[in-house]
Amino acid sequence: RIDYISDAFNDLLLRDSVKKMGPSREEVRQKLIRPADFYIQRGFSQQILDEFDVGVCNDPSKEMYERVVFPVYDVNGKFLVGCVGRTLVNAAHKWKNQKGFKKSEHLYGYWLAFQAICQSGTLILVEGQGDVIRFHQAGIRNVVGIFGSKLSDTQELLLQKTGVMDVVTVFDRDEAGDKCREDCNRLSRLFNVRHVVPLVDDVGEMSIEEVQGLKL
Length: 216
Prior knowledge:
Blueprint: H1 2-19, H2 25-31, H3 37-40, H4 46-51, E1 55-57, E2 67-73, E3 80-87, E4 95-97, H5 110-120, E5 122-126, H6 129-137, E6 143-145, H7 153-161, E7 166-169, H8 175-184, E8 192-195, H9 208-212
Parallel strand pairs: 5-6, 5-7, 7-8
Antiparallel strand pairs: 1-2, 2-3, 3-4
Helix pairs in contact: 1-7
């Protein structure tokens, strides 16, 4: 089982290495348009948004035009593998994945959280990008996002690579969050899984004090 996990993860790293499908992180940062006022107004600091390279696309020729853009990097945090955009205008779809980006192969913030996860021995799972960033702003760095309400086999593999035994989920208190919790129950065959249900409906809307008050 351990050999299988190691081989499968090495295959994942090899795919990232071969693809180098996007620019380097430094190249991404040079093209960012900041600040992302939409999130500043929601209580996110510019410092924390900069740490995650969050910016706004104002180029009409680009796929993410008029969206707040969340870059997603490889497991080493060196190359862009895709991005996710949150609309700034009225649109049928609030969130949009960059064409060709396979969200099921990645965990948001994984490269930033890896060291903290290994040091703490606990991994915290949340749904989205804003949730991850809110936790980081609250000083909780061992957290990654699953891009929605379902954990894929590849994402599970990434969890195993950290070597932790304890997984804590903090999903929204709504129907989608319930689906997340139900889906993640399957992790109990490999991890000690505990679900923490917040008192508010949207984790990303929690205050810093509310995040810090969670019994993680």
